[in-house]
Specification:
heterodimer, A: 463 residues, 7-stranded mixed sheet, 23 strands, 37% helix, B: 100 residues, mainly beta, 1 helix, 10 strands, binds flavin-adenine dinucleotide, binds FE2/S2 (inorganic) cluster
């Protein structure tokens, strides 16, 4: 059967879109890697609700969104990875291939919405491949899904709202990190302050941030500001963290180091479908070039939520709804213009905080130009120096560097080294990142086994 | 690496390199490895070094492991079930590099 709309991602954006489109009577399927709906922000929310562990307004509103999705009539396929997508051709619609428990299945749909969210900005530094180094997001997932706590001594290094949020969640679980290294550039507040008046329109969220900071005051973790560089040290596992401030280098023992340098849109799937992307200078990342309500340069394909540009979960849910309405309209459903205006109005205060957070969260220079010896590609263990050397030897873009160095050729397919590749090529060539270009992404979107390929029924075989 | 506080929910038992680990339903195989305190869930195909899960959300592929006998599973995306057997992995599984 062909669905009217296939949505990849059951986070706030995907759920919002599904609720709207299914509400208009369209056939909707939502595919997601996770075992339950909610996305990154509302991970395991149904389990936490059943256990009476919902905490605050965000949790409650998220649980309500998931409940509305469950009642919407949209088909939910959890635990599946979409690893192949073909744009419409020869009169047929989109064709997706997904794997569930090792078995492949094909899905046909007239419209596709990518609501695949964000990923944590890859932050290469010496020693980041050592066991014991994880991202803050990883530790938050361990805490949200199972109440698990990191072993001490615990060091958190990074910037942006997530480490703050995570530290406050840890505090509620009765744990204080041994050290927090704040890597925000020294001039971050000076650059962000002009945006503060605008941000005040999003005062509720701003107040929540301040509340988090004050909550941490009660049992304050030891915090060092203006950290320029970090290093993870150890033979076979993390043993110590070294960090540099203006005062020089300091070393502390550590069992777990959690890093976080902000989040960037997850562009992998969109790039594989040939969606046009633009380089976001302020946030140093690629994002899809979008028209009204999530329309992309590929007819029939929509993108919403953090995958379209970082806006936080409430903006994602609203933009998902708007994209769902537009996709439905394109299929002939009649939608209510007043409802759209209401959604746009509702969006405003949530979006108001962004310029302030963006200015505050611009990554530090050391992160964007790693030292020669630093590994940028974890899969193939390619260093920044090797990438620079490949450019010096004549490679003009990420794809040529990939052929010469294998950077981006491993199982993560450049998800972690892609942004570094663009930055390093730009730096070595002395051109803006937009000119350096990005890796060409081809399906399969995930490394699949020959068995997966063989498991596709012939009528569904892509390509 | 990670520990479960005494009051945390746990209803499933899995075996990481033979060692039993109690977990909540919905948690991932990669979480089991971190709770078991295993020093390495795979040896890296390029440098042979020890690796453990890094992102827990399907991005980095550091969590490739052997689950119920199947090599190369992305552990952070595989939910645990009662009696699941998880083993570390050496090198690369048999992956299809090129499209069909
Ligand atoms: C690690 C992490 C932790 C975060 N924690 C918080 C938090 O605590 N609070 C907060 O306000 N914000 C948090 N954020 C920001 C948060 O992501 C957004 O505000 C919000 O979740 C965005 O919603 P979304 O629907 O756009 O994407 P998401 O919620 O990220 O949902 C995207 C979904 O797509 C699925 N997906 C992606 N690719 C595929 C594929 N190929 N096949 C199948 N499914 C796929 C993913 O499994 C995911 O469930 C976090 C971000 C990250 C990266
Ligand atoms: S831990 Fe990164 S993909 Fe599983």
């Amino acid at each position: 059967m062909e669905f009217d709309i296939a949505i990849v991602g059951a986070g706030p954006a995907g759920l919002g879109a599904a609720i709207e489109a299914a509400g208009l009577g369209l056939s909707v399927i939502v595919l997601d890697e996770q075992p339950a709906p909610g996305g990154q922000v509302h991970r395991a929310i149904e389990v936490r609700k059943a256990a009476g562990r919902l905490d605050g307004e965000d949790d409650r509103d998220g649980a309500a969104l998931v409940a509305a999705f469950r009642a919407s009539g949209a088909v939910h396929r959890p635990g599946v990875q979409v690893w192949w997508m073909d744009p419409p051709a020869g009169g047929a619609g989109f064709r997706l291939v997904a794997t569930q428990d090792g078995a492949s299945q094909g899905i046909a749909a007239k419209r596709v919405l990518l609501a695949v969210g964000a990923l944590e900005r890859p932050a290469p530094f010496p020693g980041w491949t050592l066991p014991g180094v994880l991202t803050v997001g990883a530790a938050q997932i361990l805490l949200k899904s199972g109440g698990n706590l990191a072993a001490a001594p615990l060091v958190i290094a990074g910037q942006g709202p997530l480490p703050l949020l995570f530290a406050s969640q840890l505090a509620k679980a009765g744990m204080v990190p041994d050290l927090i290294l704040d890597t925000a550039p020294a001039d971050a507040w000076r650059r962000a302050l002009p945006h503060l008046p605008g941000a005040l329109r999003g005062w509720r969220q701003l107040a929540r941030g301040l509340h988090l900071m004050l909550a941490l005051r009660r049992s304050p973790p030891h915090c060092v500001a203006r950290v320029r560089e970090i290093e993870a040290l150890g033979e076979h596992r993390l043993e110590a963290v070294r960090y540099r401030t203006e005062a020089g280098w300091t070393q502390v023992p550590a069992t777990i180091l959690l890093v976080h340098e902000g989040v960037i849109p997850n562009v992998h799937a969109a790039m594989s479908l040939g969606v046009e992307h633009v380089w976001d200078d302020g946030q140093a990342c690629w994002r899809p070039k979008l028209g009204v309500d999530g329309e992309t340069s590929v007819p029939g394909l929509f993108i919403a939520g953090d995958a379209a540009g970082i806006g936080g979960w409430r903006v994602a849910a609203i933009d998902g709804r708007l994209a769902g309405l537009r996709a439905a309209e394109a299929l002939g459903a009649s939608t209510d213009a007043a409802r759209r205006s209401r959604l746009r109005l509702e969006r405003r205060p949530h979006a108001a905080l962004r310029p302030f957070l963006d200015a505050l969260g611009r990554p530090r220079e050391e992160l964007l130009a790693p030292a020669d010896a630093t590994v940028v590609c974890r899969c193939e263990m390619v260093t920044a120096g090797a990438v620079r050397a490949a450019v010096q030897a004549g490679a003009t873009g990420p794809n040529e560097v990939k052929i010469r160095t294998r950077c981006g050729m491993g199982p993560c397919q450049g998800r972690l080294c892609g942004p570094s590749l663009t930055m390093l090529v730009a730096e070595a060539r002395g051109v803006p990142p937009a000119k350096a270009g990005h890796l060409r992404i081809r399906p399969p979107l995930k490394p699949v086994t020959l068995g997966d390929m063989a498991g596709i029924p012939p009528e569904d075989r892509a390509g | 690496m990670f520990r479960k506080p005494p009051d945390a929910p746990a209803g499933v038992t899995v075996f990481v390199a033979g060692q039993p680990v109690r977990m909540a339903a919905g948690e991932s195989a990669a979480a089991a490895v971190l709770l078991a305190g295993l020093g390495s869930s795979r040896s890296h195909p390029v440098d042979g070094g020890a690796r453990l899960p890094y992102c827990m959300m399907g991005v980095c592929f550091e969590c490739l492991m052997v689950i119920d006998g199947a090599p190369g599973r992305q552990g952070c995306l595989v939910p645990v079930h009662e009696g699941m057997r998880i083993e570390p992995m050496a090198g690369l599984p048999d992956l299809a590099g090129a499209p069909p």
